[in-house]
Amino acid sequence: MKCINCGQELGQDVRRCPICKSEQLPKKRKIRKSSVADVEYSYAPKSRIIAGLLQIFFGGFGIGRFYLGYNGIAIGQIFTFPIFFIGGVWGFIDGILILCGQVECDANGIALK
Q1: Running DSSP on this structure, what letter comes out for residue 39?
Q2: Are 106 and 46 in contact, with CB atoms under 8 Å apart?
Q3: What DSSP element (H or E) covers 94?
Q4: 52 and 25 in a common domain
Q5: In DSSP terms, which residues pair with 2 in a beta bridge?
Q6: Measured between alpha carbons, how far is 41 from 93 in angstroms, rounded to an integer?
Q7: Can you name the residues that pair with 16 across neighbouring β-strands?
Q8: pLDDT tens digit string along 16-72?
Q9: Same domain, 60 and 95
Q10: Which of 15, 34, 35, 108 has the fewest beta carbons closer than 10 A?
Q11: Co-location of 23 and 62 in the same domain
């Protein structure tokens, strides 16, 4: 491993360079000043069966999509529900698609189990 500041060759678990005294960051974490999206978070995977069943039975209210974290789609289903129950039909079809595997991950990018 090389120092991120001076380029001096370091050992594997060195946290501070002995030459320039700069702190070394862990390899698996990317940090940029302009982006918060690179910080790694740990989320538990959501259940495909629970999401699909919530969407089939309460899809007009977007409950399955709220569960997966897709808030925009869920709000769209809520607003289309009063219009001839389009949101209800949309939610039912969406629930079937979730159960069939067309939706592979939640809003955080974690694969459904």
Answers
A1: S
A2: yes
A3: helix 86-100
A4: no
A5: 9
A6: 31
A7: 23
A8: 888 887 777 655 544 445 444 555 556 788 999 999 999 999 988 999 999 999 999
A9: yes
A10: 34
A11: no
